Amino acid sequence: MAMKPELRFLLNDQEIRLTEVGASDTLLDHLRIARRLTGTKEGCAEGDCGACTVLLGKLTEDGLVYEPINACIRFLASCHACHVVTVEHLRGPDGGLHPIQKAMVEHHGSQCGFCTPGIVMSLYGLWMSDPQAGVTQIEEALQGNLCRCTGYEPIVKAALAAGQQGGQAMDALAVERDAVAARLHAMREGRVELSKGCERAIIPADVDDFAAVLEENPDATIVAGATDVGLWVTKFLRDISPAVFIGHLMKGIAVKGDELRLGAGVTYSEAAPLIAKHIPAAHDYWLRIGGWQVRNMGTIGANIANGSPIGDTPPLLIALGARIVLRKGAARREVALEDFFIDYGKQDRASGEFVEEVIIPTRPEAKLAAYKISKRRDSDITAVAAGFCLSVENGIITQAKVAFGGMAAIPKRAAQAEAALTGQPFAADSFDAAARAVARDFQPLTDWRASAEYRQAIAANLFRRFWLEQSEPDLPVRLQYAVGE
């Protein structure tokens, strides 16, 4: 396959061509240092505060889509054939302030101003994609933006006011969309291989090319959304070269009977509408995976392949009975997700093998729930996560699958607690028994997120919470994001 030694992307209204790009070069550094676009700020360098938010336009089956992303952990090489839009590019139809900027001024949505460009870019992404967004959608869009001094009420008021002003059809990104899409299409052909010093970055042309690249470079760092790998570089200064960037690959989405088949490269945001429709009990849980920027970058396949004991998706997916397709070269094999995790840092994945597809049973007949416990409700790392999936017939629990994250070295089912439920009446006493039994399933660690004792108490109480929610569905035992509001 022909290889090109040039990275190409659009930055605002300019085409960028680069031949010297390192595997660890970040988009934020390129914007601020090489391009002097200093409206994009560095706050946390870990995708948490949102001060570095820019819009990324990417080609999809539905056309050109713009999404807010974190430039601090977005690698420059992953921007190939994309449109990067910074706050400097915003303008109104008359060349003055954009409606979002104007509303922020009028409603006093800024004080020190450090976080303001990132907030404006998140609201810009929402303003374009959901012109009539209400408070729920605005708060969801701002999950990944922290403001230490203004308070969010005037920012929400500004977002509502900007939506009421309209003007989306006249916005520059809307007017220029077809022309931008055509320019991006012209950049996509062939594999791209880049180097800078001793660092190498590889962007495969397609999935078959990725399989070939990985066979040639079995020890390469695979980078999908970079929501974790980005921190390897910004926080731990790790060498990730050679790095293979695959965020543009494995985007297939299909619904076959009672199963969702998702390519490993499908992001949390791309999967969200299907989760809301086919697994509605997990909708609010899904919207607590990072902030909006993280969900626009992070992929389901990478969250699994990473093997973290606190990954957000595995407990839910294990409880549902999910399977994954692993590929090496042209060979594929299917593995139950719960069997993929062997020990801390060890998965059932051979050298040169990668997760290609995730198969998720929707279980419409089952009683389902997913829980995430963290210090902060939004955009925070999990202390304990749990997925519940129970089958009940004639008042008897015929099958129970309950999986936890944060309780062991791997995402793991609670075998003792499941046994305490199976064959028992669907009643409070059965869940009290399971709550006691779960203490025999795990010996969690104490770390800065939670103590072992707290984790044990949480795991037990989640059984009681599940019972309360399922037995009295109208009981307001937790806050939820409303579907479609």
Q: What do these coordinates show?
A:
With 485 residues, the protein is an alpha+beta fold. The protein folds into 3 domains: 3-87 and 177-245, Beta-grasp domain (Ubiquitin-like (UB roll)); 99-170, [2Fe-2S]-binding domain (DNA polymerase, domain 1); 253-471, 2-Layer Sandwich (Enolase-like, domain 1), CATH 3.30.390.50. The chain has helices at 27-34, 99-106, 116-129, 135-141, 152-165, 172-175, 177-185, 207-216, 229-234, 268-278, 283-286, 292-297, 300-305, 313-320, 337-340, 415-421, 428-437, 452-471; strands at residues 3-4, 7-11, 14-18, 53-60, 63-70, 83-85, 191-196, 199-203, 221-223, 243-245, 253-256, 259-263, 323-328, 331-336, 341-343, 346-347, 354-361, 367-373, 384-393, 396-405, 412-413. A 5-stranded mixed beta sheet has the order 1-7-8-10-9, with helices on one face. Strands 3-2-6-4-5 form a 5-stranded mixed beta sheet. It has a 5-stranded antiparallel beta sheet with strand order 11-12-17-13-14. The chain starts with a strand and ends in a 14-residue tail after the last helix. The mean pLDDT is 95.
